[in-house]
Amino acid sequence: MIATTTPSMPRALPAEHRQRLMGFAHEVSFPQGTRLFEEGSRADRFWIIRTGTVQLDMHVPGRRAAVIETLRHNELVGWSWLFSPHAWHLGAEATTPVRAYEFDATAVRLMCREDPALGNAVAQWVGDVLAHRLRSSRTRLLDLYAPYGAGSRD
Asked: Coil, helix or strand for 127?
């Protein structure tokens, strides 16, 4: 897998686990400009994009929100639902019309507790996504706000 891409569900979960997880999915649509969630609000669901794009953003005091990453087809929107306190760490907005699969986080967490192999696979998948998003956030914030050359070493 290329390091610059987010681990999508089809590549990250074995077929049997993917099939079980998809049993909890229902299709939703969001018009362009819809805020899916805000930083700090309750993370009680997550999505896998079918079509369209979603931008992740981070509140920056005294400035406009910084766009961290743009997500597309087969990418996971939201990871905060898996980890306590289940509050969003970023915000998300549909930048085009979006069709997605939506999942109830409580139901998926319960299924993961009941099936440790599935739970481990989902945790690994979401952990890979989380690691990627943290790297993207750091890089994007340094690009936006660090003084030119601040990161160079002589």
From this structure: helix
Range name among 26-30, 96-100, 125-129 with the lowest pLDDT average: 125-129
CATH top-level class for 24-144? Answer: mainly beta
User: How far is CA 74 from each of CA 6, 7, 12, 51, rounded to the nearest angstrom?
Assistant: 10, 9, 11, 8
Domain coordinates in residue numbering, the chain: 24-144
Residues 71-98: what's their mean pLDDT? 95
Show Cβ contacts of residue 149 under 8 Å, excluding neighbours closer than 6 positions: none
Shortest CA distance to 91 belongs to which of 33, 5, 24, 153? 33
Please give the model's pTM, rounded to 2 decimal places: 0.82
